From TrEMBL:
InterPro entries: 6-PGluconate_DH-like_C_sf, 6PGD_dom2, 6PGDH_NADP-bd, HIBADH-like_NADP-bd, HIBADH-related, NAD(P)-bd_dom_sf. The active site is at K180. Gene3D superfamilies: N-(1-d-carboxylethyl)-l-norvaline Dehydrogenase, domain 2, NAD(P)-binding Rossmann-like Domain. It comes from the Bacteria. It comes from Caballeronia catudaia. This is 3-hydroxyisobutyrate dehydrogenase. Pfam families: NAD_binding_11, NAD_binding_2. Residues 12-169 form the 6-phosphogluconate dehydrogenase NADP-binding domain. One of its GO terms (molecular function) is NADP binding. Residues 178-293 form the 3-hydroxyisobutyrate dehydrogenase-like NAD-binding domain. Keywords: NAD, Oxidoreductase.
Amino acid sequence: MTELAQLDPQSRIAWIGVGTMGRRLCSRAIAAGYRVTAFDTNPACLAEIVALGALPAYSVAEAIRNADIIVSTVPGDDALRAISIGEHGLLSNARQGAVFIDTSTVSPAVSAEVARAAESWQISYLRVAMSGTVTHAEQGTLMLMVSGMPAVYEHTRPLIDVFGSRQFFLGRAEEARYAKLVVNLLIAVTACGLGEALALGRRGGLDWSQMLDVIAASPVGSPMLHYKLPLLRTREFEPQMTTELLANDIGLILAAAKQNSVPVSLCSLSQQMFETRIAHGGAQEDYISVIKLFEWMAAINDEPALAPRHIADTDKSNP
């Protein structure tokens, strides 16, 4: 590993990808005092982050010129390959001693490909996978799963701490990628299980708000459920994470499972549920709107009565 440049609030940060999540992470780095140059293929996204204090760049090469730290937040495998590998990629154009941090949700296989390319160019590569919503990103309360060289992680902690204090350093290779897929597998299966349960409860005559109160207070009242309670109570599914995005992540899970010869029957079934929800027009709604699909399958065609007020669920101590 080449010698790392000293990281301090004056360190030069290049940020590739300032869309929904990237803009929020990047804005926190700017607020923390880092000098950020940003690039995005979407001019509107770039204009938003420039308004918050970033310097604009109009290519990857321009953004990373002289950068100490390069951070990417891009949509998936193809985008990560495009910005990082090849003649015009950031790895071949980054200065010696730079660190490349990727925060995208991508497959372990493509991440390993990028790792090999980074090693050939003597660029330090850190995977920082995130779990949480855009609200958590804005507040700097994401849960972070990190893998790479331990010295690189410690070196970049001042920047990574800006994104979230709950951090898990998991290893030197693709452990962070697998951890993110494990979490998202559970999210997908749990959302479908909740959809079945709520459909059964409605068919049995349970009041919608009271049923949610009971579930939230029960041993299955998980943090995930509590995050989604406001959307479930109002049935206004403004996305924290879209159905389409989770469906894409399920594709990564299934590919990793196949590569590792792991049967994931429940996850495979959940993929069908989310793809069907997309076909029913729910692509850009929050993924928890999959509950509407289970209602449709149970021939529940009416909206439940919504209580104007509900019991506050403040006890989150149950496992």
